Every structure is written in C-alpha cells, then in structure tokens.
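[step 3/7] fold_predict: job queued, chain A
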Amino acid sequence: MGLLRRMDKRLGLTAAAAAAIGDDPQSDKVRHSLGSMAAQRVYGLCQGWLDVCDHNALRADPALQTAVGRDALLASAPTIMRLETAATPEQAWALHRVRVRKIAAAMVRNTRRVRVMLASAHPLRELFATAARRVSWA
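[step 4/7] structure written:
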C-alpha cells in the first residue's frame, strides 16, 4: 500500500481527480475530503476490490487508512457510491482528461521513445499519436 501511495503522490492522480470533480455544494456536511475518497476508491481498485460494497469492510483497514493519510474510519460504501453516482457528464469528461494527461505525462517523463500501438478503432488513438509527435526526442 505504501508503494501505491508513493506512486500516486508522484503522479498526482487522485489529487488531480479531486480537483477535476470540484467542491461539493454541501461540503459543510462532509466528513471526508474528495481527495481522501478518491484515494480510497483508487487504492481499493488497485488492490482488486472492484465492488463499492467492499469499502464497508475496507474503511477500517489500517493499511488503507495509512495509505489514504487518515487515522480514522474512511468513507463508507454508501458515501463512495454517492460520489460516483452524483457525477455530472462534465465531471466525467474532466476525469477523463485528467487520466489522459497523466498517462501522457508519464509516457513523456519515463521513456525516451514512445511507440503508440493502439488499434485504429481505439477512441484515444489520435490523442496519443498527437502527443507522441509533439514529444522532443533529444
């Protein structure tokens, strides 16, 4: 879990996702920040916990609490579910753009040459091809 948290901090994925979602209009009633809920959900997915209902058990897991950076119970499954189901189409597209930008940045940062081998039917093929052409291969 510690490695997962360090990778996330380096990439800034969950922080960027929380920023893309924006503030909750009822944030005065919320006990969990968007950043901690995003981290909880992403870290759970990375560990193979695909079902949101699993977070009822995971919320008390000390390793996940440490990775998320909280020393109290994490968000419950219904709280995570509300976060996921309340997303607007604009927020979904903002999250999609975050994912594409983070992947492109990691490709540029971690490789000298990038070979984009995506099927011609892949919806992101042109975006990745454009990003690969713009990279300076010095």
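[step 5/7] annotate
The CA atoms of residues 26 and 33 lie 12 Å apart.
The first helix runs from residue 2 to 11.
exit 0
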